């Protein structure tokens, strides 16, 4: 898009015509991750001040969607997949396969640009960790989390998410 703007300019600062022109001139890629895995990652990185995962989840639920941090806010409210037609949606856990395809479609050399991914190990680790941490939550917290992330869970194929059960 030809219009000059600073890197920190937000899409909402453009009018509808400019936004449509800009979005039409880019390849749009959305990276998505299971909401529970995002919460676990945030907790494990110490981004919450709670002593346990259960109390961290309660803090998230108490904050509500409007006051939620970007690190755990539902993706649908951050990325607007109903308004923006993304060219690619890349799922965490399939990065090597999907990024390879994306680079190939862009005409870039795949092998020389991709770092070594350990998707299978990461998926197994997050699956095990998710089960352990999910078991710490009360039934009410599990239901509230499923409701909190209901639009993400319906917009993206998180079929193995514990929140969909």
From TrEMBL:
Membrane topology listed for this record: Single-pass type II membrane protein
Example of a GO biological process term: dermatan sulfate proteoglycan metabolic process
Subcellular location: Golgi apparatus membrane
Domain of life the protein comes from: Eukaryota
Signal peptide: none
A GO molecular-function descriptor: sulfotransferase activity
GO cellular component terms given for this protein: Golgi membrane
EC code: 2.8.2.-
Top-tier EC class: transferase
InterPro entries listed in its UniProt record: Carb_sulfotrans_8-10, Sulfotransferase
Keywords recorded for this protein, A-Z: Carbohydrate metabolism, Glycoprotein, Golgi apparatus, Membrane, Signal-anchor, Transferase, Transmembrane, Transmembrane helix
Stated family: Belongs to the sulfotransferase 2 family.
Protein's name according to its UniProt entry: Carbohydrate sulfotransferase
